[in-house]
Here is the input.
Amino acid sequence: MKKTLVTIGVLACMFASCQSKQETATTCNQENPVVSTIMARRSIRKYKPQPVEREKMDLILQCGINAPNGQNKQSWEVRVVDNPALLDEMKEAIAKGHPNMPAEMAKGCFRGAPTMVFIARDTKYDFSPYDCGLLAENMVLSAWSMGIGSVCLGSPVRFLTDNAECVPYLEKLGFSEGYELSLCVGFGYAEETPEAKPRDWGKVKYVD
Ligand SMILES: Cc1cc2nc3c(=O)[nH]c(=O)nc-3n(C[C@H](O)[C@H](O)[C@H](O)COP(=O)(O)O)c2cc1C
Here is the structure.
């Protein structure tokens, strides 16, 4: 009797857990490692201090540059900074360049990620923002599959490009002529396990 009740309970949970598309994907595709990585990934904003090992970053970067991209132009350039002193200097420059910004905001602008990836786009190619986004997505997903957290960051792009204090650091990143900083992505070992944020399935429609 007890066993039957437990079985009914488990089946009821499984049924309930598959009621929304989001939950169906989360709970019912655990056996597919790509799907489960996609569904389990979350943006991480608290990290352990150690940078990601460079051999692991190399693999993540290889996954990045193997993303689909328009006409295989690879309209990106990528710079990796895992030197904590340099990251601190960049945050200080952001603070100096934004005197009205709360100090905590400048300090936290990389969300504590110990390895920062700066992605620039080729301004001569209109689809380069998508190329850079797909590169970033391949990186965050491959990282997650390896137990490494990440966060895509748009705000540091603005903070690094809208003032004179940060110019030396943009120069240090050394992007080619015609490329502009487009997206930052922080990587590291997670020190938090955030919940999934809800997604709106209503934005998706089949059109017959
Ligand atoms: C283009 C882009 C810019 C983002 N900029 C920031 C940012 O400046 N700061 C931040 O904390 N998160 C940033 N995020 C992360 C989003 O807030 C996050 O992906 C979203 O809330 C969904 O949460 P999830 O990634 O955990 O699913 C950015 C994400 C993207 C794709």
Observations:
- The first helix runs from residue 2 to 17.
- The chain has two domains: 2-40, 54-188.
- The beta strands are 76-81, 115-122, 149-153, 179-188.
- Confidence is low (pLDDT under 50) at residues 4-19.
